Structure to design on (997 residues):
């Protein structure tokens, strides 16, 4: 943009040139300006959602949102809908003339009543001085504020307008934070002076804006556009009577450069805005159209766009689209780089022919446009039924070969062919002859095709590099091979896609044949075989193809009913990739229905249903800027979340909705947005949508990241926007919950188990106590019987002692008496213990058996056997457990036996935790023990006491199954009393016994 102005300023080398240009422009009226056909555009008005058709100013925000000042409120447009703000939204006054931004990204609006409004943080606010100021000052002066500046301290500076202009006495005000409005005297610096017009341009600089004024009486400053520090375009209005034309003020355009002011233009139409676009074009909006100076060259005649339309401003968004506010609505212009031709009838075919462009129209015959001309010339009013013209040897064949257009010596000639005569008689021109010969031979062979009534059904014809003739008809594709021109091969029989209307045939430099159809896309033949099929699934905008234009072997243009497709063919290592870009009316085409396309005179020419258009390069049509995108809202279960931070959601907030808004005025046909949710979908699984919200339901607990992008139709993608969140699991789904459940269940089971153990222990204790009580009773009963028996035993013992005395055997008597007293003492001591060592038990039994043997005059012998060398002092046994069994053997088993043998054996049990003690005798059988007499009852009571004490052992020592059994062999010669008792270690120190005591 600045380079264009440098080029322009070089043209002002002398004052004479300046004066000459000035004089020329003063003499011109608007009707004498260069008028071009208006570019494709869309007009939005109240029917589209605007509050009014009277618009005053436009502003493009950083997010590409369009702000519109109207007389019925402030509106915004995001490519989807218009949203209007009024006083109920906080706006100070509905009618506002300008939209102004500051360095804090706030947007200011100047009300017609002198009020100021500011939009900040998604809401409008009134500047605090509004009420007092509007009621005191504005009603009588009808002034409003034109510009707004804000300094770092927060003070507001504003420039008051008188009527609609900035005059020499315009006032600057300062609004403090307390809302007090003060008139200030600020320094204005002189920027330049015009000696011829006798005025000066002055500027007061503030933080984010500059205020300008013209110091001349009744001369007012309309608009200012600062290109650089010393390059400023500005328009002024003079209202003195001598300069009025038709009772209206005169508007003048000036350029300030290096302190000098040059007049550029004068008009009776008010100049409302000046704008320099991205391509350095100067656009000046007036009440009678837009003046455009291409490339900033103001020395040339401007093009007048939208003549007789009252414009109030013009600007450009970040995509390169143009927006203009008028008093009859909002105008959207995709581009100024496509030039519509004045001849705007429907163009069906375009064919370059030397210095001419041949145009076939729908209803106005065939025309030609010569290089450098504007309006096409009529060649013939006749309409033709052909498809694309067959260009051969610098001639174009029309009407299926019946008529030719050829260029000779830069002139066009039209000739006809009489099929019944020799072609040579019609022309000596070799070009005509060659072209006619090809067509004559071709169409002569076409008559041989059984499915065709005549050659008139032919739509397109082309010849490949091998001189094979390819013919497209309404129903099929045919080829006449050069090696056999009398044979016509129908390719549609083997390729079902070609059983339809063939619209065009193109031959590439590599001799590839491209065939387009109406309904089945495009088929490419390579070496006579199908190589590629292009259709909507592979990226084309439509399968209904009107024509093709093969610019190079790697660039194919496709004309269809949904615009113009540019197909770039890239081949690498045998792989072929097709990149398709669609152009339609959003890019500035006159219509989406494109009939034909060609390159001629350094331009691309497009034939559409609404006329002819041209452009130099697609680069000027493709938007380089990415769409803008923001996640506007995230909510779940009625709760909205801040989109700038990560959030933790509760388990019941697993239905999450995302709202987002992308702004692009070049949206693709479908799939404007693409999105994914990490943690829910595969990382590479992006989905497309045109909706502005996405809802996920019943999300599982976990970590998620929502990602969304917006892309325009040129595959330019916005920055990725993300929102991370975590959904907490329900407490029943957490590991600690299951751990607590495990601990709880384990605790309950342990409690039940311990309760059961305690119950069983208590029950066992009760049983043991009962058993002990019962045992004590039994022992007491046994003691009672013993007490009855002991007198006899004592009496017999005393008799034995007496006999020893009478026999003068004092030593024997003393010995017997000593053993008897020892036995009595042992019995008394042992009966008070719970457990004694096995050694003590065996010692007691030995003393007992010695006395019994003396008493019975040694009727039996006894011995003790320690089979496994058990250390008898290390293990315990209940006291007197074995004595009842031994006593039964002596008293009853040896009653009638003179040579009795009694053996007491101890050995280890196979359980390793028990002993086996056996009392073996050769007396009577065990069954004789159970005689039903008193003595038998006593014996049974002794055995019962043994079994009860064994049962008590099982209770106190359950690890070993203690038992007592009586066994005899079959002959009754041997009887065994067998004890199985646990190994109770002596180091336990009788703890259990003491505790039970």
């Amino acid at each position: 943009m600045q380079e264009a102005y440098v080029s322009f300023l070089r043209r002002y080398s002398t004052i004479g040139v300046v004066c000459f240009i000035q004089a020329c422009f003063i003499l011109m009226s608007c009707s004498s300006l260069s008028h071009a056909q208006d570019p494709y555009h869309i007009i939005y008005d109240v029917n589209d959602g605007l509050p009014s058709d009277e618009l005053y100013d436009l502003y493009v925000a950083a997010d590409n949102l369009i702000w519109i000042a109207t007389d019925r409120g402030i509106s915004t447009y995001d490519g989807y809908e218009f949203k209007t703000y009024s006083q109920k939204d906080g706006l100070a006054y509905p009618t506002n003339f300008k939209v102004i931004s500051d360095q804090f990204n706030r947007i200011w609006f100047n009300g017609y009543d002198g009020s100021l409004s500011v939009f900040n943080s998604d809401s409008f606010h009134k500047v605090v001085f509004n009420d007092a100021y509007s009621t005191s000052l504005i009603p009588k002066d009808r002034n409003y504020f034109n510009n707004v500046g804000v300094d770092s301290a927060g003070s507001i500076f504003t420039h008051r307008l008188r009527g609609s202009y900035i005059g020499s006495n315009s006032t600057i005000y300062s609004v403090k934070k307390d809302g007090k409005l003060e008139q200030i005297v600020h320094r204005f610096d002189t920027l330049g002076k015009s000696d011829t017009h006798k005025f000066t341009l002055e500027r007061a600089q503030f933080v984010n804006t500059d205020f300008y004024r013209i110091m001349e009486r009744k001369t007012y400053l309309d608009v200012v556009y600062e290109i650089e520090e010393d390059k400023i375009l500005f328009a002024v209005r003079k209202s003195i009577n001598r300069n009025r034309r038709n009772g209206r003020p005169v508007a003048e355009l000036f350029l300030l450069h290096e302190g000098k002011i040059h007049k550029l233009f004068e008009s009776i139409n008010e100049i409302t805005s000046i704008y320099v676009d991205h391509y350095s074009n100067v656009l000046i909006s007036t009440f009678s159209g837009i003046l455009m100076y291409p490339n900033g060259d103001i020395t040339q005649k401007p093009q007048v766009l939208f003549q007789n339309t009252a414009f109030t401003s013009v600007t450009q968004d970040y995509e390169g689209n143009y927006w203009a506010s008028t008093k009859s609505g909002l105008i959207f212009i995709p581009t100024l780089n496509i030039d519509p031709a004045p001849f705007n009838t429907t163009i069906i075919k375009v064919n370059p022919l030397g210095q001419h462009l041949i145009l076939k129209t729908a209803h106005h015959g065939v025309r030609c446009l010569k290089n450098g001309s504007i309006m096409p010339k009529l060649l013939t009013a006749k309409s033709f039924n052909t498809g694309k013209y067959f260009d051969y040897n610098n001639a174009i064949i029309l009407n299926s070969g019946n008529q030719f257009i050829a260029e000779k010596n830069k002139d066009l000639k039209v000739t006809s062919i009489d099929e019944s005569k020799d072609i040579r008689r019609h022309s000596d021109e070799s070009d005509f002859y060659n072209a006619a010969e090809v067509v004559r031979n071709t169409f002569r062979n076409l008559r041989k095709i059984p499915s065709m009534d005549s050659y008139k059904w032919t739509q397109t014809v082309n010849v490949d590099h091998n001189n094979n003739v390819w013919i497209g008809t309404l129903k099929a594709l045919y080829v006449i091979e050069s090696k056999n021109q009398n044979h016509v091969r129908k390719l549609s029989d083997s390729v079902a896609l070609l059983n339809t209307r063939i619209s065009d045939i193109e031959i590439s430099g590599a001799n590839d044949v491209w065939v387009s159809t109406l309904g089945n896309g495009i088929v490419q033949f390579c070496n006579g075989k199908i190589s590629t099929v292009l259709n909507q699934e592979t990226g084309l905008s439509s399968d209904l193809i009107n024509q093709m234009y093969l610019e190079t072997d790697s660039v194919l243009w496709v004309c269809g009913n949904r615009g113009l497709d540019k197909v770039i063919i890239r081949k690498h290592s045998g792989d072929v990739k097709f990149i398709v870009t669609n152009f339609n009316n959003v890019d500035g085409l006159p219509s989406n229905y494109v009939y034909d396309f060609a390159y001629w005179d350094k331009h691309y020419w497009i034939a559409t249903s609404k006329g002819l258009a041209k452009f130099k390069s697609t680069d000027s049509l493709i938007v380089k800027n990415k769409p803008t995108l923001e996640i506007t809202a995230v909510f779940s279960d009625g709760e909205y979340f801040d989109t700038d931070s990560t959030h933790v959601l509760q388990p019941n907030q697993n239905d999450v909705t995302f709202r987002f808004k992308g702004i692009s005025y070049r949206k693709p046909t479908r799939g404007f947005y693409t999105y994914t949710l990490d943690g829910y979908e595969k990382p590479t699984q992006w989905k497309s949508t045109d909706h502005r919200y996405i809802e996920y339901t019943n999300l599982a607990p976990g970590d998620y990241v929502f990602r969304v992008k917006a892309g325009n139709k040129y595959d330019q993608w916005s920055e990725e926007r993300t929102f991370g969140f975590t959904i907490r699991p329900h407490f029943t789904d957490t590991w600690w919950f299951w751990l607590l459940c495990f601990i709880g269940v384990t605790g309950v089971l342990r409690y039940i188990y311990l309760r059961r153990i305690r119950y069983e222990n208590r029950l066992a204790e009760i049983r043991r106590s009962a058993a002990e009580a019962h045992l004590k009773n039994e022992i007491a009963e046994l003691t009672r019987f013993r007490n009855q028996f002991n007198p006899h035993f004592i009496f017999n013992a005393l008799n034995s002692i007496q006999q020893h005395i009478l026999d003068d055997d004092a030593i024997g008597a003393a010995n017997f008496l000593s053993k008897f007293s020892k036995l009595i003492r042992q019995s008394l001591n042992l009966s008070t213990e719970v457990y004694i060592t096995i050694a003590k038990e065996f010692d007691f039994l030995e003393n007992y058996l010695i006395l019994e043997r003396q008493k019975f005059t040694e009727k039996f012998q006894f011995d003790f056997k320690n089979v496994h060398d058990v250390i008898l002092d290390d293990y315990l046994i209940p006291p007197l457990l074995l004595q009842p069994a031994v006593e039964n053997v002596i008293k009853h088993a040896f009653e009638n036996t003179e040579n009795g043998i009694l053996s007491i054996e101890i050995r280890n049990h196979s359980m390793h935790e028990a002993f086996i003690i056996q009392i073996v005798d050769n007396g009577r059988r065990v069954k004789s023990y159970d005689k039903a007499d008193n003595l038998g009852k006593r014996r049974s009571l002794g055995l019962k006491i043994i079994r009860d004490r064994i049962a008590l052992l099982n209770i106190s020592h359950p690890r070993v199954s203690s038992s007592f059994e009586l066994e005899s062999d079959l002959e009754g010669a041997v009887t065994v009393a067998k004890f199985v008792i646990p190994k109770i270690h002596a180091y336990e120190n009788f703890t259990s016994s003491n505790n039970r005591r």
